[in-house]
Structure formats: structure tokens, C-alpha cells
Amino acid sequence: MEVRDFLAGLLFAYIPVILCEFWYTRRTHASAARYLTSSGLVISIGVFSSLCTLFTFQIGPGTPLNFALVCLSWGFFLLSWTRALISLAIYILCQVILSFAIHIDKGESANEAIHIVISELNHSILTVVVFAILMSLTSWILRNQPAFHRGMGIVIALCGYGAFDYVYTMRMLMRAPLHLSNFAWFLAIVGAAVAMAVRVTVGGYNAHIMAKNQMRLEKSELVSQLAASVAHEIRNPITVVRGFTQLLASKEYDRDTTMGFYTTMVDELDRAESIIGEYLNIAKPPLGDDETDVDLPVLLKGAVQALKPYALDKNVDLHLTLRAEVMIRGNYSTVLQVMINVIKNAIEACADVDSASVVIELNKVKTNAELKVVDTGSGMSKTTLEKLGQPYYSTKSQGTGLGLTLAYKVIHELGGGIFVDSEEGRGTTFSIVLPLAENALRRTATTGFVHLETDS
Fold first, then answer.
1. Domain for residue 239, yes or no?
2. I need a labelling partner for 333 at 20 to 30 A (CA). Which of 65, 128, 231, 304 fits?
3. Is residue 456 part of a domain?
4. Is the pTM of this model over 0.85?
5. In the chain, what's the furthest Cα-to-Cα distance?
6. Residue 226 and residue 212 share a domain
């Protein structure tokens, strides 16, 4: 084996692994989860896998090997199978570009280079399809399994693919005899390299899965708390409708009085329907990760309407002041969840304070939307403020702190920021600054970077 090509190929295969592990060990769990699901990791796996092919070495007579499979297989371990397929597609695109450039550098014409590249693609299409199907099935089947089981499943699947690839390449394409020792070296080197990559990043993967599960629990807790308040609030319109129904059944009234009764009953039923609708908007999962223009005043009205029963149950006055009509860029369900989390925290901070209130105020400041959530609750100390937003840190006895962690993460990804001013005994002010939709679109076009969210 050529030691230089072996070491160089292994280095390129492990660069995404090293970057991922470095990020995990130097950042919080939430930051690691964000990196693990970013397009940066998806792209780096595809690009560095392609660079690995530049350092092909021989493990025996007529048996070439490179570490592209190591990097791609590790991607199927760490990412969802859909994003791993994107990495595979990027790898194929890079391979086409590299192959074309190499043939042009050899002095061949553009037409000749294109013809050769197409011929190479035709020869490798079957192996690529088999690899994609086998790895995708393995990743999907083991999607909820512990890191060790998922990693070993990927290694076993890779060995199965390796057997097919070796036999197909050697016998069908190269018409060369099979060497059992070379085949054993092939499986040993590639399998061991993938197993090591899995071992290095198993902590990051477990933290990523834990963060996802904790966020689901946080949302379930929010929904269950709101359900009790909503049930209490719905009793009022139901009681009104029941009372008027009994009145109409007891005796006959003139037309105007009867129509007045009916109008009131319909209004109360509409109010109940509105309460239920807002609750369902919170309870249902997001429909997708696509960013759209979000009408922030409309979103805030929905969030406040949904939380009013909860605020009444806590004896907290909830007020919304809209001083500007602004549009931001983001996923509606995700931004709604963030606003719900922030406002709900403000309500809970006022739970033990008499005559408490929470005021939400929306302004337009230059090219940004500025949202202030001001409560007259118990406030926070400097120590608490320093830890605010960290996963698993919460001032609530049964809180996980992931609600605010999610808020910081989402607002940061949207190009905004969260600023907190608080004093013990005097309340807290959360200021959320977000770029307007036109500025967000301009920023995305300039950077060309789109964040990807995790899926299961």
C-alpha cells in the first residue's frame, strides 16, 4: 500500500468527523444538535468524500481502494437517511466535476472529457444505487436505536455492500480474478475506519437524540398545561349556550329577543371554537421546515389568544400592543412555538405576584422587528441571567430549560438576537430582534446558506 495516499485519504475522510467532534466538545448540547443538522455537515461529507478519491491506494494486485465509503457511511450513521442521500448526491456531483477537470488537464477536448465522464457514470450507477438503498434502509430501520446498535448496523451494511462492490467491480468491470486476501483487507480497512468514526462521534449523536427527545417532552408539558386552562375557559361559553337553550325551551319569546339569544349563543360558540383552534395550532407538529413570510402581528395575536386561558388561570393580565405591521422570514410553526415559550415563561414568572401583568409590544426599528415581553414578576439574579438559555438549566422545579434553549437557537438562525434585562423583585424584559423579511431574503441570497432541521 502507498502509505502517503493511505494517510491522506484517511485524513480527508475524517475531517468532517473531527469537525463534528470538536464542535460537540466545545459547545453546548443545543449548539451541537444545531451543527449536526446543518447543511454545512451535509456538504462537507459530500465534498471530502469526493476528495478521498484523489488518494486511491492499492491493497493488492489490481485492487484499488480509497476512503470515500468511510465518510459517506459515517454520514448515514449521524444524519437522517434523507440528508445522507443529499451528501451522496453532492459526492457524485463533485466526482463528475473532478473527473472532467482531470481529463481536461490531460489535454483531452471538452467533448471527449464529457463522453468519458458519462461512460464512467454508466459503469458506477449500479453500485451507487445499491449503496444508497442498502444504507438508507439500514439508517431508517435503526433511526431510533441507541448509537452503538445504529453504528454497528451501518458497519454490517457497509460490509455487505463491500462484498457486492468488490465482486461486481473485479469480475464484471475489470474482468480480474478474485483474491480472497484482498477482499478481507478491503472489508477490514473500511469497516474498521467506519467503526472508529462512529466511536469518536457517539457522544455527539447521543446528545443530539437526547436534545430532540427533551424538546418533545417540553412541548408535551406545555400542551398538557394549556389543556387544563383551555378546558376551564371553554366552560364559560358552554354555560352561556346551555343557559340560553334552557330559556328558549322554557317559554316563547318575541322575535327580537329570540334573535338576540341566538346571536349571543353563536358568538359564544365562535369563541369556544377559536380557543380550541389556537390550542390545536400549538399541539400539532410543524408541517415542514420551509421558510415563508410570517405576518408577525397575526402570529402574536394567535399566541396571545392561545395563552389567555393560561394567564387567567395564573391571575395574570396579558396585554398585546402592535405598533407596526411587520413581516419576518421563517417557519411559522417554529416561530409560534418560540413566542409561546417566551410569553408562557413571563406568565409563570408572575405566578406568585399580586396584580401581575405581562405586556407584549411589537415595534419596527429601522430594518428590524423588535418584540418586547415585559413582566412584573419576581425577576432574576445576575447569576440566573448568565445561565439563561443553557440546556437543562431552569428556575422551575420540573423544567428542563430547553424552551428558552430552542428560542435562542431559532432566533439566532433567523439572524436575530435575544436580549434580557431583569432585576430581582421588579420583573423582566425580553427583547427579541428579528430582521424584516426583505432583509432576511437579502442575507440568505448573499450567504447562500440554509439551515436544515432534524427529522426522524
1. yes
2. 231
3. no
4. no
5. 103
6. no
Instruction: Find the CATH number of the domain harbouring 412.
Output: 3.30.565.10
Residue 443 CB contacts under 8 Å (≥ 6 apart), including other chains: 415, 435
Same domain, 302 and 266: no
160: amino acid identity, one letter? G
The CATH number linked to 257 is 1.10.287.130
Which of 9, 13, 26, 70 minimizes the C-alpha distance to 195? Answer: 70
**Torsion-angle region of 114 (φ positive above 0: left; ψ -120 to 50: alpha; else: beta):** alpha
Same domain, 227 and 336: no
DSSP state of 369: E
Determine, yes or no, domain membership for 454: no
Pair (303, 396) in one structural domain: yes
Q: Are residues 395 and 320 in the same domain?
A: yes
pLDDT by residue for the chain (456 residues), tens only, comes to 567 888 887 888 878 877 776 655 444 444 444 444 467 778 888 899 888 888 887 776 667 777 888 888 888 887 788 888 999 999 999 989 988 888 888 888 888 888 888 888 877 888 889 889 998 998 889 887 777 788 888 888 888 887 887 777 766 666 666 677 777 777 777 777 777 766 655 655 665 566 566 666 666 666 666 666 667 667 767 877 887 788 788 888 888 888 888 888 888 788 777 667 656 655 554 444 567 888 999 999 888 887 887 888 888 899 999 988 889 988 887 788 788 888 988 888 887 788 889 999 999 988 899 999 999 888 888 777 777 766 545 555 444 455 677 778 788 888 888 888 888 888 899 999 998 887 655 444 333 323 333 333
Grid cell listed for 29: 448540547
**453 within domain boundaries:** no
